[in-house]
Q: What sequence folds into this?
């Protein structure tokens, strides 16, 4: 019976090619607009580290006071004094401090020009905390952090550029006239959004190429290439030491806490630290600290671009309009066949038979509209950079799941839109149709 209904639907669609084409185009354009914007939203709103996002936290300390805070929130990073204090206390299983750097790489080949390599100054726990994969070697340990050793981890892309992809662990590389010993080469790794560096606006930046010890970077006066927020006065200070011991915030802190008890204990530690600073005369306000996990941090930082939400809302609104137009077209098409329906009912067809026939016909329209929508979605992927920033546009891609979702949305939406026209068609009275004809 299903095959019979498909044959009836095919014959009906062929009888009015123009009306059928209008319905398919309406569904196709509506679905394509929705899927293109959904692809972007899916890329930027996912959990970048789902298996650990509830265990990684950003601890923040209010070093400014309520008169300088926005909506009562402390600064979104730490200054050097507080960052070092948290590291020395070591109240978490793993902990790290991060700030962006960019160093000039000097290739071994004298014929090649130096180039900038972006990356981070951090601690050895960074790699285990964030599950960084390695192609060769590994990260450094706490001994290298304490000794301020000039070691470095480079990315797979940089290793390919400098050493042709060969194992470079143990080799020396020169960056900004300083020599570093390579201890590891990361595999392809670039979580999006880059949750650990939203403070400096690098959530969707190009992948990092280098990682070096935080302690060594500070000792060598390697400046941050990220944000440096000095509060209302905007004064950084005249010297390196003045800046380090001032209240400018520029360091992103992260700790790993694997249980509720550890989270509670760390909150108490932060409050206790703030009270100590108040007693010492540095703060003159009550503790105002925060401890957010990855998901909470991304929500607070609004890591999902507002334009992606707006465009997706508009696109789905456009899909609704297309479905309303489809309802009208299906209603006109089905009601024109009232005499045919009356004859079928008089010959013994039930209302259920009418439902199955017309919904099967609608599903065929949806499938064709989905195929058109899939083609338009593919084309739309190439024009995303006209609407979104390039670093966001390139994150969206057409994969098997999006193909299946496009077809499913098209068929489901069309069948749902067909319910009212089908219901009207099923209410046709056979006697009236036979009498009038």
A:
């Amino acid at each position: 019976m299903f095959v019979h209904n498909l044959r009836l639907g095919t014959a009906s669609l062929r009888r009015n090619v123009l009306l059928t084409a209008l319905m398919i185009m309406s569904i196709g354009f509506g679905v394509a607009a929705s899927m293109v914007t959904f692809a972007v939203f899916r890329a930027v709103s996912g959990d970048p580290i789902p298996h650990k996002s509830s265990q990684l936290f950003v601890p923040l300390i209010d070093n400014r006071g309520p008169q300088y805070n926005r909506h009562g929130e402390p600064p979104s990073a730490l200054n050097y004094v507080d960052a070092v204090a948290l590291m020395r206390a070591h109240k978490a299983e793993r902990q790290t401090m991060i700030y962006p750097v960019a160093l000039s790489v000097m290739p071994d080949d004298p014929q090649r020009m130096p180039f900038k390599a972006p990356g981070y100054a951090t601690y050895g726990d960074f790699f285990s905390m964030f599950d960084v994969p390695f192609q060769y070697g590994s990260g450094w340990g706490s001994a290298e952090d304490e000794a301020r050793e000039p070691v470095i981890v480079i990315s797979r892309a940089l290793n390919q550029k400098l050493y042709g992809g060969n194992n470079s662990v143990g080799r020396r590389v020169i960056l900004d006239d300083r020599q570093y010993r390579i201890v590891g080469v990361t595999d392809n790794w670039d979580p999006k959004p880059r949750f650990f560096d939203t403070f400096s606006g690098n959530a969707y930046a190009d992948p990092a190429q280098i990682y070096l010890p935080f302690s060594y970077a500070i000792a060598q006066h390697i400046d941050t290439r990220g944000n440096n927020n000095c509060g209302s006065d905007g004064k950084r200070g005249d010297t390196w030491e003045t800046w380090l011991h001032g209240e400018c915030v520029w360091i992103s802190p992260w700790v790993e806490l694997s249980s509720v008890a550890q989270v509670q204990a760390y909150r108490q530690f932060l409050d206790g630290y703030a009270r100590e600073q108040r007693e010492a005369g540095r703060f003159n306000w009550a503790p105002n600290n925060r401890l957010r996990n990855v998901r909470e941090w991304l929500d607070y930082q609004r890591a999902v671009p507002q334009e992606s939400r707006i465009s997706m809302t508009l696109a789905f609104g456009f899909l609704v309009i297309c479905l309303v137009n489809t309802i009208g077209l299906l209603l006109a098409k089905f009601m024109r066949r009232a005499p045919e329906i009356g004859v079928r009912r008089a010959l013994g067809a039930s209302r259920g038979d009418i439902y199955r026939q017309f919904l099967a016909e609608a599903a065929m329209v949806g499938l064709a509209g989905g195929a058109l929508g899939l083609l338009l979605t593919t084309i739309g992927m190439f024009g995303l950079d006209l609407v979104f920033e390039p670093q966001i546009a390139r994150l969206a891609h057409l994969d098997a799941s999006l193909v299946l979702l496009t077809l499913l949305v098209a068929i489901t939406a069309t069948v749902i839109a067909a319910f009212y026209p089908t219901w009207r068609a099923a209410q046709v009275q056979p006697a009236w149709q036979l009498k009038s004809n």
